[in-house]
Automatic annotation (TrEMBL), chain A:
Belongs to the LipB family. It comes from Artemia franciscana (Brine shrimp). SUPFAM superfamilies: Class II aaRS and biotin synthetases. The lineage of its organism: Eukaryota, Metazoa, Ecdysozoa, Arthropoda, Crustacea. This is lipoyl(octanoyl) transferase. Its EC number is 2.3.1.181.
Amino acid sequence: MSSAVLRVLCLGTLPYNKALILQNFYCEQLVAKEPSALNTLLVLQHPPVYTTGIRSKEYSTDDEFRLKSFGADFCRTNRGGLITFHGPGQLVAYPILNLTCYNKNIRQFVSAIEQSIISVCDELGVLASTSPHTGVWVGNNKICAIGLHRRQNVTTHGLALNCNVDLKWFDHIVPCGILDKGVTSISKELGRNFSVEEGTGLFLSQFSKTMNSPLIIVDEQETKKEVSTILKRAFYEKC
Amino acid sequence: MLAGTSRRVIGSLVKLPQKHFSTASFLLGRKYTDKHEWIDVDGKIGTVGISSYAQNALGDIVYVQLPDVGTTFEQSDECGALESVKAASEVYSPASGSVVDKNSEVEETPSLVNKSCYENGWLFKMELSKPEEIDSLMDEEAYSKYLKSQEE
């Protein structure tokens, strides 16, 4: 079984809609089998935003207005999963991969994501597990949400691991549409502040192991240049 | 010469409109795409679904997004999505045409696609605009071989 190399771009904090532009760019390249296309992992944080998946009709414009009134953005997407929140203190990762390179179907890929997060928690002494509800749980509380889209076997969207995010943001929604369950974060479980920066290294290491995929971490300058080029092009194409 | 005359007589007695002999309109059974959709053609109407391999690979399907009646597609256009394990996977139209019916049963009970992907779990029906496209799809035998090659 061959394992494909994964290019990692650490993006800092980026608005959700700009990250979507990047995701779509890398996805298009892989779908079109461009010679320069590479499996890419985007790692970042978002300013506060609530997002919904393809079951978007379950959330009305009233819901949208109400959630925006709390100071967050609101975005309807084509991923799986119901409503969730992204914000500062949450490690968000978007693996834009051609699953054929990894010889995994979508179920196996979701399982691999769950396993890599469980391994991160395990390293920290946090007892995490899977459940009939996709994602990673500490008891009845979700510590990491997962929601994906697959187009011609290329994935977009991904996971969101709560590091030291303010969990009060989740009070305004039924996270992932699951009643009687809560949310937690690594900071809450450890009883100390655990930052996204601390989580990133652990996540990259475990994800690389689980996917059997060597990583190429693109340096900061190169990342900035690449992101700027893609976003500028998208802006001018829109005009 | 006689044979030639006989052929001409036969030709004028039995008019055989070419379109009725298009292979697409005969009962060929299901044809498959390389993205694991199937289409079953009866006359100009094709019923579309996903294969057993596909429903198994997806896992428990919890939501089905189907195209509206009247939507037109070219072959291989994205025409819908199926959600399982918090992943929305695109469905592609096996042929060109316009949607004439969608299966409201699977919209209400998405698990039908897992339980009965070839019968009650059909997704939508379309009127084919280019029936000859069906010839390029895989029959059962070719699809089986294709699945085996994917496993290697």
